[in-house]
Write a structure and sequence with these properties.
The chain is built from 12 helices and 9 strands. The protein is α/β, with parallel strands linked by helices.
Length: 291
């Protein structure tokens, strides 16, 4: 259902407000450059700082601008099952094709609690769900056996795996079945992830280098591994540089360099990237041939 290069879109702000015109331009550029789907309101979109109305509006703008040319996977996660269900409801009303639902964070639910969480969401909506497992942010890690049980829910179609454990790809394929969609949540591991059975990446780097990321994913999909490795080497410094300070600060800085007038404003508690981070992004953009 979902594959390839899928940017987790940044949310541009101007004077504290969502810059809708700039966001529309970003969506159009992403589609023109070959992105295979779009994720608004993810971690990279500073979703934790968005109000409920802003969340709804960002999804609406993404869907309205995409006009069915690529799927829209709306970030709908929360540490509250009820809040996640409400976000899924509004995302479906806005026309999203699926929901990306992070494993609940902060309150550290048990594996039984995770199953109950995703079961409640699946029973409350027919919107397809991609489970987002990122233990470095959530503390809780959805185990392979737990994911296998969750994958049997009719609307749970895949996982964004940001565990950093490539062995999980094989383990999850064997547990959940080959039809279960596995997307990498780590740009720097996407080559190995796809070699082990993954089908794409929900990407930070694709915000900045959408065409290169799309070409990379296409090469892995078609088995052109030498070409994919060359693109991996070209992009690797950028993958690292975009996390040289709190994300998405470096990504917004990079977009400000590449797209004239793109606002680099962040919402607190995030602040602009350090001088060292900006220098790393500059060098990585040059290495990738983008600047």
């Amino acid at each position: 259902m979902f594959f390839g290069s899928i940017p987790a879109l940044v949310t541009p702000f101007v004077d504290g407000r969502v810059a809708e015109d700039t966001f529309r331009e970003l969506v159009e550029w992403q589609i023109a450059e070959g992105s295979n789907a779009l994720v608004p309101c993810g971690t990279t979109g500073e979703v934790a700082t968005l109000s409920s109305e802003e969340h709804r509006r960002v999804v609406e703008v993404t869907v309205g601008t995409a006009r069915g040319r690529v799927p829209v996977i709306a970030g709908c996660g929360s540490y509250s099952t009820a809040a996640s269900a409400e976000r899924m409801r509004t995302a479906k009303e806005a026309g999203a094709d699926a929901a990306l639902v992070v494993v609940p964070y902060y309150n550290k639910p048990s594996q039984a609690g995770l199953i109950a969480h995703f079961r409640a969401l699946a029973e409350g909506s027919d919107l397809p769900i991609i489970v987002y497992n990122v233990p470095s942010r959530t503390v809780t890690d959805i185990g392979v056996e737990t994911l296998a049980e969750v994958s049997r829910l009719p609307t749970v179609v895949g996982v964004k795996d940001a565990t950093g454990n490539l062995a999980r790809v094989t383990a999850q394929r064997l547990a959940c079945g080959e039809a279960f969609c596995q997307l990498s949540g780590n740009d720097d591991m996407a080559l190995g992830f796809n070699a082990m059975g993954g089908v794409g990446c929900i990407s930070v780097t694709a915000n900045v280098a959408p065409r290169l990321c799309s070409q990379f994913q296409e090469a892995t999909r078609e088995g052109r591994w030498d070409e994919a490795l060359a693109l991996q080497d070209r992009l690797y410094p950028l993958h690292a540089a975009l996390f040289s300070d709190a994300s998405p600060g470096p990504a917004k800085y990079a977009l400000g360099r590449l797209r004239q007038g793109f606002p680099t404003e962040l919402r607190l508690p995030l602040t602009e990237p350090s001088e060292a981070s900006r220098a790393a992004v500059d060098a990585a953009l040059t290495h990738a041939g983008l600047a």
